[in-house]
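Q: what sequence does this backbone want?
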């Protein structure tokens, strides 16, 4: 690990001032990606700005048709929050599947989506639920936020403050995890609203994506059988030592059926 300076911000304004003051600062929230990257000397920030103490970024509210979750809420808190469990149980269940207890008690919602790991779980929920991502500068629709492999629409020193999820009629997440990392080889989030169905897939490609053919079939009939005969083209999917593209394409169909079955049980 290279040498760096450490700063602990107590407020959002202080964090922004610190980020603007130093040459190459990085935001530290849970640290599950940044710190290992620094230990391997793949990142060399001049300064770390720790935002974990900013209480304004820790809040969960269900107001009307929206569930608002602060960027610093941990996966464990999202998973166990009665508010989340009541409003969007599929999201609570997803959070409970992330990593292991250590990861869930340190990792944060904002940190996860800002990192945009192609096998992370939250991006699938954000995309399927048409989430709105609030930052220190603007509001970004989920479909505009996840750009490419580890790339988002965030600009330099822009901080995610909270994420708003429209509450669906029902939703569920099904994941086929890597047995070592617990990241998704394939994860599928299915969300049903009065306007139709959205299906978002993580782990299978270089970035989270909407499976429109699956969504259209489920919009016509929200039953596992509606997916019969609907296939996923493996051409753009990951093909690596963990799973072939063809296998991932097959898993997308299996995980989607599982998610629909779970979502129906919640109606």
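A:
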């Amino acid at each position: 690990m290279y040498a760096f300076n450490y700063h602990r911000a107590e407020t959002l304004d202080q964090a922004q001032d610190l980020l603007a003051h130093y040459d190459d600062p990085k935001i530290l929230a849970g640290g599950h990606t940044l710190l290992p990257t620094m230990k391997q000397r793949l990142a060399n920030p001049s300064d770390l700005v720790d935002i974990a103490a900013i209480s304004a970024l820790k809040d969960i509210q269900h107001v009307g048709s929206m569930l608002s979750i602060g960027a610093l809420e941990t996966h464990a808190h999202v998973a166990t929050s009665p508010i989340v469990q009541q409003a969007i149980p599929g999201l609570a269940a997803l959070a409970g599947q992330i990593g292991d207890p250590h990861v869930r008690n340190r990792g944060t919602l904002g940190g996860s989506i800002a990192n945009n790991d192609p096998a992370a779980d939250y991006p699938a929920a954000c995309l399927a639920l048409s989430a709105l991502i609030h930052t220190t500068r603007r509001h970004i629709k989920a479909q505009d936020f996840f750009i490419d492999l580890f790339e988002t629409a965030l600009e330099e020193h822009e901080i995610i403050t909270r994420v708003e999820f429209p509450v669906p009629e029902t939703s569920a997440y099904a994941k086929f995890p890597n047995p070592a990392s617990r990241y998704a080889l394939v994860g599928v989030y299915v969300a049903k609203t009065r306007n139709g169905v959205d299906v978002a897939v993580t782990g299978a490609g270089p970035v989270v994506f909407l499976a429109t053919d699956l969504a259209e079939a489920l919009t016509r009939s929200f039953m596992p059988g509606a997916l019969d005969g609907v296939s996923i083209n493996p051409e753009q999917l990951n093909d690596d030592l963990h799973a072939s593209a063809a296998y991932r394409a097959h898993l997308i169909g299996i995980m989607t059926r599982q998610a629909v079955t779970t979502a129906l049980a919640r109606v």
